[in-house]
Each structure stands twice: as structure tokens, then as C-alpha cells.
Amino acid sequence: MLDGRRILVTGGSSGIGRALVLAYASHRASVFAVARREEALRAVAEAAPPGRVTGVAADVASEPGRRAVATAVDHAGGALDVVVHAAGALGPVGPAAHLAHYPADAWDRVLAINLSAVHLLHQRLAGFLERGRRPALIGVSSTVGRRGRGGWGAYAVSKHALEGWLQVLADEWGERGRVYSVNPGATRTPMRAEAVPGEDPAALPSPEEITPLFLRLAHPDAPEPSGIQLEARSWLGRDPWEGLPL
């Protein structure tokens, strides 16, 4: 259903990003998996159908890293249909994350990865998306990015800011492209285990289980209107291609 779609996923070596890379590749998209660790990216590419995944080892929070991502896309033809911003940093949580004494270095790092890197990488990739077919940009948000919650510090603040950034982009793009905010909800990932260490991971859906909505939004004929906030859990167990042309 995604034959010929050119998709870039940041944070593509672990957690939700890894699951999305493999899901897109299994539906015949050509996928750029972006992450810092080259060895982990090789493992993802080996787990995907042959030739479907191109690993790009880059730190998107740095200018050289963003330049490397753009260079990889340019060398592959210079066009993208979908970009998914799944890379993220958690930072301190709990009492240590209360705003009155939140560490300045952690604040800068979380905002740099969760917000600034999204914006600055988009500036690098915007021209490639303009050459795509009904392009889409998907931002991975969070429940605490929809409603702030004490103890989540810069992570919650950065996700609120991401929501605003996505709304501005949707308004600017208009009919030229689609922009979506997707809240995955609590998911069985390393970041979730770090954030809520006492939680039973078996009670949470796996990253693979929350991919249906992300698959649907990557389709060129997805009917969901640009600029809306969506919940990945609302598509658990559903056919992502429901109502779409075969």
C-alpha cells in the first residue's frame, strides 16, 4: 500500500522509530532510518526486507548531523513523501523535574532534541518534501504534550512546543502538504521504562502494535485533515487501509 513512498524516520534505531521503519519497509516504502548509532541502524536494515532501508548515522541535534541527513536524501534522488519526527529525549522526571530546580543543561538538551532539531531539520528537508507526492509530516507527541503534568519538566514543555510548531506548519503549508500530531500513548519502550520504572511493561502495547495509524497517515490518499491531533491507540488492531483505495 506504500509502494514507491519515500519516508524518513528520525529515532529510527529503537522504540517507536524502529517499529515504524520496519512497518513502512514491510509495506514496500523506501525508508531512511536516522539515528546516532551506526551499528543499531545496520541491525534495523538487516531486519527489514532487502534494499528497503537506508541507515543514516547522524545526530539531528547538530548541524553536521542535519547536513548529513539532507545529503543522504539528495544522493538518493532528492525527494521525500513523508517525514516522521520520532527522535526524542526524556530528561529528568519526577521530583527532580520540578521546574523550580530543573537542571539547565538538561533543559537545553531536551529542547534541542525534541523541538529545535525538528525545526532545523525541517528547514533542511522542506525542499525535498515539496517534490513529494501529497507529502506528509508526522510529529510524535505525548499525552503530557497535550496537557501539562508536574514532574515531566522539559519533556512536557517541549512536546507542547512541538504541538504549536506543527499547527503553524499546517497553516503555512495549506493544501501543499499534510501535518499531523500523533500521541502514541504509553508504549513499551526503553524511554517509557526509564520514565515510569515501576510500571509493568506487559500492560502496555508494543511499538509494533501502535503502527497502524502511522501507516495510514503515510498513504497519499489518507483522508485525515491536516493540522489535527490524533491518538495512535484509537487504531490499535484496526486495518490501517480502511476506506483507502487499493
Topology diagram in text:
Layout: E1 6-10, H1 15-26, E2 30-35, H2 38-47, E3 53-57, H3 63-75, E4 82-85, H4 104-130, E5 136-140, H5 143-146, H6 153-173, E6 178-183, H7 190-195, H8 211-218, E7 229-231
Parallel strand pairs: 1-2, 1-4, 2-3, 4-5, 5-6, 6-7
Helix pairs in contact: 3-4, 4-6
What does this structure look like?
The protein is 41% helix and 14% strand. By secondary structure, it is α/β, with parallel strands linked by helices. It has one domain (6-235): NAD(P)-binding Rossmann-like Domain (Rossmann fold), CATH 3.40.50.720. It has a 7-stranded parallel beta sheet with strand order 3-2-1-4-5-6-7, sandwiched between helices. Helix 2 (38-47) links the parallel strand 2 and strand 3. Helix 4 (104-130) runs parallel beside helix 6 (153-173). It starts with 5 loop residues before the first strand and ends in a 15-residue tail after the last strand.
Quick description:
The protein has helices at 15-26, 38-47, 63-75, 104-130, 143-146, 153-173, 190-195, 211-218, and strands at residues 6-10, 30-35, 53-57, 82-85, 136-140, 178-183, 229-231.
Please give the CATH architecture.
3-Layer(aba) Sandwich
Q: Number of folding domains?
A: 1
Please count the helical segments: 8
> Based on helices, strands and strand pairing, what is the structural class?
alpha/beta
On the 0 to 100 scale, the average pLDDT is: 97
Profile the largest sheet. Answer: 7 strands, parallel
Q: State the strand order across the main sheet.
A: 3-2-1-4-5-6-7
- Nearest-angstrom radius of gyration? 17 Å
N/C terminus separation: 7 Å
Q: Count every beta strand, where a strand is a DSSP E run of 2 or more residues.
A: 7
Helix content: 40-55%
- Low-pLDDT sequence parts: none
